[in-house]
Amino acid sequence: MTGPARRRRPWLALSAVALVVVVGLGAVIFRGDLIRYSLDPKTPFQTYRPPQAPDYAQRESWALMPTSPAAPVASEPAADVFFISPTMFDGGSDWIARFNDEKSDRLFRRVMAPNYAGPFVRLGRIFAPRYRQAGLYSLLTLREDARDARKFAYQDVARAFRYYRDHDNQGRPFIVVGVEQGGSIGARLLREEVASNPTLKARLVVAYLAETVIPAADPPLPACRRPAQTGCVAAWAGVDDGSMDRARRLLDRALIWDGQGELVNLSGPALCFNPILGAATDQPAPARLHQGAANATGLEWGARPAFLARQVSARCVSGVLHVSPPKSASLKPSGSWIERRRAPGFNLFYADLETDARARLAAMSR
C-alpha cells in the first residue's frame, strides 16, 4: 500500500466514527419527532374509512358493566359510575381504533381500570363503554385531522351514555369519570347531555375529569369549590411542581370544546381542582393531607390496592396543578416514549378521590 493511501485510512475511520456519532446524536435529539412521525396515519381523515361502530345494546360493547345493568340488586352500590377511559391506541396507519381492539382492551383491564375506575368501584356500579378511540397521535398535534378524529370518538361515547341513561340508570344518582382523552370527551358530554337535561342534572353527584383542561370562565357545570358540593365538575391537568415552562406549553396546546361542538384553542384561564383539598382553589395542599396514592396496575379487578399516604403535595398555579415528586419509585413514570405519554400506570390521588366522591354521594343522599 502506498504512503498516501496508508495515511488516508485513519481519516476514513475517523470520518466513519464521526458520522455514527452525529447520526446517534440526531436520533437522540429528534427521537420524539421520529416516533411522533411514525404514529401519524398520513391519510386525510376526510378520506379515512373508520372501523365498525359498537352496538351498546350488546354486552361486548362495554368494557365494564354490572351483571344485570337494568335491574340492580340490593347488594350493589346505590349509585352508578359512567367511566370514559383514556386512549390506549397508539395510532400508526389508523386514526381510529376498533372498539374491540384486543391490545387496547388488555391495557384497559391491566392498567386503566384498576387505577382510574378503581377508586369508585365501592361507590357505584361501573359502566365503561368501549369506543372507537382516537389514536395517541391525535393528542400530540393540533392538526384539523386530529381534531376530527377526536370529534369522531365523542360520537360513540355520547351514544353509549344515552343508552345507559335510557335503559340502565333507572333514576339512580351517578358519577361521571373521564381521564385524558376520556376527560375531554366527558367535558362535552356534560355540556350537551347533562347540563341541558334538568332531571338528569339533578342526579349528577360529581364529574371528575382527570388530566383534562376545561375553561374556568365557562365550565360545562359549576366548578367544585368545596368538599361535599354536588352537581359540579372537578377538572385538573398536572405537571411536576415548578415546571412553569411545561405548564405554559400545556395550556398553549390545550384544545377545548366550544358551544358548537368544535375543538378550539383555550383562551383564558383553565379550571384547576385540587384532589387533596377537594376544591378548585389556589390554596396549597401539603403532603401531610395527602390520603394516598396507589399503583394498582396488574391487580385483579375490584381488589383494593395498598395506599401510599403523604407522598405528594399539590397546588393550583395559573390553572395547572403542580404536584411534588412522589417519594415511592412505584409512583414515577416509566416505560417507553409512547408509554410516558399515556395516562400513567398509577393514580397519585386514588384514596383522595375515593373519599371525596363518598362525601359528595353522602351529601346528595341526605
Query: What is the count of structural domains?
Result: 1
Helix percent reads 25-40%
Give the number of DSSP strands.
Answer: 11
- Category from helices, strands and their pairing: alpha/beta
Instruction: Please give the largest β-sheet.
Output: 6 strands, mixed
Integer average pLDDT:
90
Strand order of the largest sheet: 1-3-2-4-5-6
State the order of secondary-structure elements, H for helix, E for strand.
HHEEHEHEHHEEEHEEEEH
List keywords for this structure.
single chain; 366 residues; alpha/beta; six-stranded mixed β-sheet; three-stranded mixed β-sheet; 14% strand
What does it look like?
It is a single chain. This protein is an alpha/beta fold. 33% of the residues lie in helices and 14% in strands. The chain has helices at 3-29, 31-39, 102-117, 144-168, 181-194, 198-203, 244-252, 350-365; strands spanning 62-64, 79-84, 124-129, 174-179, 204-210, 232-236, 238-240, 255-257, 263-265, 314-317, 320-323. It has a 6-stranded mixed sheet with strand order 1-3-2-4-5-6, with helices on both faces. A 3-stranded mixed sheet has the order 7-11-10. Strands 8-9 form a two-stranded antiparallel sheet. Helix 4 (144-168) crosses helix 5. The protein starts with a helix and ends with a helix.
Describe the SSE topology.
Elements: H1 3-29, H2 31-39, E1 62-64, E2 79-84, H3 102-117, E3 124-129, H4 144-168, E4 174-179, H5 181-194, H6 198-203, E5 204-210, E6 232-236, E7 238-240, H7 244-252, E8 255-257, E9 263-265, E10 314-317, E11 320-323, H8 350-365
Parallel strand pairs: 2-3, 2-4, 4-5, 5-6, 7-11
Antiparallel strand pairs: 1-3, 8-9, 10-11
Helix pairs in contact: 4-5
